[in-house]
Amino acid sequence: MNGKLVSSNTDQQHWLIIRQFILIWALLTLALAAALWSVYKTQEKSMLAFIRDEERQTIKVSSQFVGEDLRIVHDDLFYLRDQPVLYDWLEKESPQNLARLSADLLAFVKYRELYDRILFLDEKGRERVRIDRSQGQPVIARARELQDMSKLYFVEQTLALNKDFIYISPFDLAIEHNKIEQPIKPVIRFGTPVFDQHGQKRGIILLSYRGQRLIDRLRMISRQSVGSLWLLNAKGYWLIGAHPEDEWNFMYPERNNRLFANDYGEAWSSIIEHPERLQFMSNGGDLFSYGEILPKALFGDIREGIVSGDERWLLVARVPAETFYAKNVRQVRILVFILLTVLLGVVSWFIAHYRIRRQQIEEERRVSEARFRGLLESAPDAIVIVNGEGRIVLVNAQAEKWLGYTRGELLNQPVELLIPERFRIHHQAYRQAYTDKPVVRPMGIGLDLYARRKDGGELPAEINLSPLKIGRELFVISIIRDITARKQSEQAQREAQAKYQKLVNNLRVGVYRHTLASGCFLEVNPAIIAMFEAESAEQLQAYPVNDLCREPGCWQVFMNKIRQQGFVDNEEIPLVTLKGREFSASVTAAMKQDNAGNTYFDGIIEDISERKETERRIRKLNTALRDRATVLESVNHELEAFSYSVSHDLRAPLRAVDGFSRILLDEYADRLDDTGRDRLQRVRAAAQRMATLIDDMLKLSRITRSELKREDIDLSALAGEVIDELRKQEPSRTVRCTIQSGVTAWGDARLLRIVLDNLLGNAWKFTGKRSDAQIEFGMKRQDDDTVYFVRDNGAGFDMAYAEKLFGAFQRLHDASEFPGTGIGLATAQRIIHKHGGHISAEGEVEKGATFYFTLEAREDL
Amino acid sequence: MNSKVILLVEDNPDDEVLTLHAFEKNNIHNTIVVARDGAEALDYLFGTGGYAGRDFRDLPLVVLLDLKLPKIDGLEVLRRIRANKETRLLPVVLLTSSNEEEDRLKGYMLGANSYVRKPVDFDEFVRAAGQLGLYWILLNQPPPHCQDFRER
């Protein structure tokens, strides 16, 4: 595997991991978001419930506190009304009694920190005793400081009450000299009429309850609760509010339009319309908890005896929506979400990585298993795996095929099913033995093994066993190889061997195998036994080969030669038979090595005595032939010299004969009669004729000797030239000549010209007696050969003499009729033969003749 | 007519007679010196042997040389003529019975001025001899040194 593949694989893996990671992360993030959302919702819900509870509790506690604090006022009021000192003073308005009353009241105010002022007014509404708290200390007002307070609404109200009735003023601010006292002093006035022992209404007692104390306490509670605790009067003005300017607005005409209902209309409606609900959640998410304090109900079941300026007071606690969805909480949540998301990211990455790795490992395992399966199934051998109990647990396709069982039929069957019955008994013991010593080894070494097929047939097999330990169990892998083919090939080999043995035995030449170690023949065939005239193979094989050689050491020399060359062909060695007959042998040997590395020599020995005799004769004949050839050569030379001298020496006498005959005729004519002159003329003619004969003969011999200079020739043109020359020589003749155009040949131009000279010349000559003479030259194809022909309609010839036509000096016509030496056609034939062709003629007397010739085709075509 | 010598190298007495007869028939009356073999011809030309003392500068007008000669054959005679400074320009006509191409080729290669075949027909022979004489004696202009010598 190269680097590129690896990297691409890794890339691919990375992508897979990233995809997985993104998927997992997205899912986990969604889940986280959902979980967080639900947690936050629950949290909010429970927080809301908690706050609701808390707020409800706050209202309750506040309300209780107010009730408890004010309940004392009732007791105080009646205590002060009923004390004896007061009655004493009422009986007798003496200064002593007044002093005692004042001192008593002073002490009361001093230790009861609930009140700012205690007043005793007479029935006319005039102050009679007044204790003020000034800078925290109670002070008895002097007589001159006492005022007429009959016009004040709460005095009027109280004076109008019956016995045991209590008047409770509205919760408002103290007013001094018609002005709101500064700093403001919240106050609730409690009053009750005072009757003397005679049942006479004598005045009223007024207690100014320190409102600030109540306010402080409520503020304290507010501070400890989640929301802000407010106190409203029945009209909806703040007594305790979020800001000082919101409070006591009903006291200030310029701002008495500022009411709780203005700001929180919905909440106000709920408070007024559904006081029992105690809580209200506005659309804006603000939580309002509320409760009312009824002044009339303050003192238990004496509700009828109470006259109150305020119908009720309202305790309202507001928890703004922001409390539930505080900004920092949201930020924390987002942060938590982000952190968890990041954490999930890391986790996702690990999961993705792990998953992909696992997938990959799974895939690898699958591939490996598939490969194993493939290997198993594609194995050329049958594979059977057997477990410790000897049952088949796995087989491959080849096993199915060879054994004829299907997989299902074999699985979980005892392996003995596959063992031929005659071996089954022992097999279990063998199997046990193998289990005891499990090693990779062939089964049944040295035995012919067979596997039993389903059809009962047996499969010659070679079986290899390998142990396979999986866990604690030992499996045995049997690899079964079908050796039918091998068995067959062994048989075939044996047969072939027998065949070759037979061949060697039948050979008429001696065949042997020889080793240096023994110095004897290892193997011999019958022919060699007969050759050495031995009684038996054993006798010959026991005989040292050295002693079979006629010349001592000859066999050693032969062996050395083989070792140098590896082989020796047809070495002639003189040998002697066991019975002492000498003969010549041709010995061939090749050096070989067997598997063990031992050198041996294989070869043949042939008795060549007869052949040698024949060769001797042939050599003799050859020598004779060579001698004869030499003689022929010199004869040829002589012939050449002869023909040369003929041309000179035979002509000179002829010239003398002719010349002197001529001189005689010229210069001695007067001394000769006509007969003498005629005879001399004949002498001359004969001499000249002989000269022509000599010339023609020389020409013929020259052709024989000359070398061919072949080229492409336009025979048509050549024939045309010949005809032209013939016409020039005899312009008077009318001959119709037809020359086929484009006839070409490959040959010696000069010689072929001679052929055409002769053939066309003959045609011309032998048509001499015809007025409608016709000569035709052309060419035709016949059996792949080009056949040229010269045809005429002249004298022709008798086919009986056709063979004689081409002989030298042979003539079929009278020389007086058609002159000629009879050498022309012989010359033509010689030229044609020299061109590797042949020439023939057809003819009929007086009907004309046709001469055919062929030429050897161009070699390179 | 004049005394210009023609050297005829011919071993065959018949041919000699016929040749002389042919010249006579053609009215060629130059002195014909006949050498009967190659050696004699060379002796004549170089003033050696039987012709010792002859002025070798007195060259014949033309040499009629047969090829087949006793002792030294015609081609060798021709070669020696051409090899000698004095005779290398001497006109030599090969007059022979041979019609062998090889002879003709060798003759010309050795510097023969002409090659004439002796016809067997005496009439033709006479005609040939006449034309030969006419050409070489009357028509042909010999090389300069021969002329110089002749005038002197």
Instruction: Briefly note the structural class of the backbone of chain A.
Output: alpha+beta
List how many beta strands of chain B DSSP finds: 5
The average pLDDT score of chain A comes to 85
Helix tally of chain B equals 6
Instruction: Indicate the low-confidence ranges of chain B by residue numbers.
Output: 147-152
Strand order of the largest sheet of chain B: 2-1-3-4-5
As a percent range, the share of helical residues of chain B equals 40-55%
Largest sheet of chain B: 5 strands, parallel
* Main sheet properties of chain A: 8 strands, mixed
The CA-CA distance between the termini of chain B, in Å, is 18 Å
Percentage of β-strand residues of chain A = 15-25%
- In terms of DSSP E residues, the strand content of chain B is 15-25%
What letter string, H or E per element, gives the SSE order of chain B? EHEHEHEHEHH
The helicity of chain A comes to 40-55%
What's the average pLDDT of chain B?
84
Assembly type of the shown chains?
Answer: heterodimer
Largest interface: A-B, 25 and 21 residues
- Class derived from helix and strand content of chain B: alpha/beta
What is the total tally of β strands of chain A? 33
Low-pLDDT runs of 5+ residues of chain A are 1-6
Any key phrases for this structure?
heterodimer; A: 861 residues; alpha+beta; eight-stranded mixed β-sheet; six-stranded antiparallel β-sheet; 47% helix; 23% strand; disordered N terminus; B: 152 residues; alpha/beta; five-stranded parallel β-sheet; 5 strands; 44% helix; 15% strand; disordered C terminus
Summarize this, please?
The complex is a heterodimer of chains A (about 850) and B (about 150). Chain A is α+β, with helices and mostly antiparallel strands.
Please outline the helices and strands.
The complex is a heterodimer of chains A (861) and B (152).
Chain A: H1 3-82, H2 84-91, H3 95-111, E1 115-122, E2 127-134, E3 137-140, H4 153-159, E4 166-168, E5 172-173, E6 175-176, E7 179-180, E8 186-195, E9 201-210, H5 211-224, E10 228-233, E11 238-240, H6 260-263, H7 265-273, E12 279-281, E13 287-293, E14 306-308, E15 313-319, H8 321-324, H9 327-378, E16 382-386, E17 392-395, H10 397-403, H11 407-410, H12 421-436, E18 441-442, E19 449-452, E20 458-470, E21 473-482, H13 484-506, E22 510-514, E23 521-524, H14 526-531, H15 537-541, H16 554-565, E24 567-576, E25 582-593, E26 599-607, H17 609-667, H18 674-705, E27 710-714, H19 715-729, E28 735-739, E29 744-748, H20 749-766, E30 773-782, E31 785-792, H21 824-834, E32 839-844, E33 848-854
Parallel strand pairs in A: 4-14, 28-30
Antiparallel strand pairs in A: 1-2, 1-9, 2-3, 4-8, 5-8, 6-7, 8-9, 10-11, 10-15, 12-13, 13-15, 16-17, 16-21, 18-20, 19-20, 20-21, 22-23, 22-26, 24-25, 25-26, 27-29, 30-31, 31-33, 32-33
Helix pairs in contact in A: 1-5, 1-9, 2-3, 17-18, 18-21, 19-20, 20-21
Chain B: E1 5-9, H1 13-25, E2 31-35, H2 38-46, E3 62-65, H3 74-83, E4 92-96, H4 101-109, E5 114-117, H5 122-139, H6 144-151
Parallel strand pairs in B: 1-2, 1-3, 3-4, 4-5
Helix pairs in contact in B: 1-5, 2-3
